[in-house]
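User: Okay, second chain of the day. Same drill as before: sequence in, structure tokens out.
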Amino acid sequence: MGDILSVRLDDQLNNLIKIFIKDHNLEKSEAIRQLILKGVYMNAVQDYLENKISVQKAATMTNMALSDFMDFLGGLGIGSQLDMEDILTGYENLRYASRKNND
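Assistant: Same drill. Structure tokens below.
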């Protein structure tokens, strides 16, 4: 079980949450959890698209494996923006994992 959090919401946010609850037939706490998660995903995608962070960092921010995050981007119609640094980092991570598994 997670932490209990008390947050004061203004009328606009409260109304947006009520609309989401109605549209998705959810209880308030589940609706808020989903909206927060969607916000985290959106923030990671936006930062990635604005080249503020690497695709690996965006995947980490969303608690997804890199391949899952890339699939997520693909589902949004966003193509890969991998640069050489991303490819080399992935290669180094793969080499490290391979050595670790062989030990």
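Residues 11-102 form one domain.

User: Thanks, on to the next one.
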